[in-house]
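To illustrate the input format used throughout this study, we show a single complete record. The first block contains the structure-token representation of the backbone; no residue identities are included at this stage. The design step must infer an amino acid for every position from geometry alone.
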């Protein structure tokens, strides 16, 4: 990943990070990316998508009829953003209310993956990106499903992470006010699994789901 002026964090520059480890960790902790592109008339769009990371590439998939996948897959310049919310930052003043967060902005271009065997393997990665181990507990894509699904590999050319942590940054004079200030952590949590109403009787909740729930308790 190279570094370029367009991906240098300028506003509160000390919150910027550019190392692979930090960027990959944020990408791996999130499930969705907001993908942006402009159509040939210059109209910008931002679309939320699932993704699966492999090295410095993110795979995006969807219907072969998807405008996003057709546009982005034509190799145009694309930018995407991933955001994790860690806390509400509640200050004494309205002005200093904020959030604790970890985010990544990545620039690059995407190319279609057409080989059926490669597509099938990457679709399995998508499923495992949702819950590790789930791909081998479910049916692989068949020929029709592979043909109906477009798959893009978005190669990250450059990226930045921005991370805010810690207390509100109130003005010194406001710290004398008898007003509460602090952080309310935001935690993503999975609930108990609900078996599909049309599941065969006696079908057990699989190991991938049990492990996911066990890991967070
Ligand atoms: C959940 C959340 C809420 C936010 N709310 C606000 C808000 O309400 N108001 C506000 O002004 N800002 C907010 N920010 C910060 C915002 O994302 C921008 O960093 C900030 O507005 C400065 O934008 P800029 O284009 O002027 O930044 P610049 O520093 O000029 O951006 C230069 C480059 O830095 C990189 N960069 C900028 N921001 C980010 C980022 N967040 N993550 C990774 N790379 C980045 C990009 O590559 C960008 O091209 C929020 C961020 C998050 C994650």
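Output of the design step:
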């Amino acid at each position: 990943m190279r570094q370029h002026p367009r991906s240098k964090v300028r506003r509160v520059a000390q919150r910027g990070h550019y190392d692979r480890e930090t960027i990959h960790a944020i990408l791996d902790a999130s499930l969705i990316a907001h993908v942006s592109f402009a159509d040939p008339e210059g109209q910008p769009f931002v679309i939320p998508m699932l993704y699966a990371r492999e090295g410095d590439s993110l795979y995006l998939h969807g219907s072969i009829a998807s405008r996003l996948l057709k546009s982005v897959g034509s190799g145009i310049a694309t930018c995407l953003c991933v955001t994790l919310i860690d806390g509400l930052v509640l200050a004494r003043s309205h002005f200093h209310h904020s959030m604790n967060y970890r985010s990544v902005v990545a620039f690059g271009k995407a190319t279609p993956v057409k080989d059926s065997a490669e597509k099938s393997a990457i679709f399995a990665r998508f499923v495992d990106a949702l819950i590790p181990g789930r791909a081998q507990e479910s049916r692989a894509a068949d020929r029709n499903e592979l043909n109906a699904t477009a798959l893009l590999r978005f190669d990250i050319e450059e990226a930045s992470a921005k991370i805010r942590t810690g207390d509100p940054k109130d003005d010194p004079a406001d710290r004398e006010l008898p007003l509460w200030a602090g952080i309310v952590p935001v935690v993503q949590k999975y609930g108990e699994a609900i078996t599909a109403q049309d599941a065969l009787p006696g079908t057990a909740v699989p190991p991938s789901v049990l492990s996911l729930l066990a890991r967070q308790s």
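Structural context for interpreting the output: The first strand starts at residue 16 and ends at 17. The chain has one domain: 5-188.
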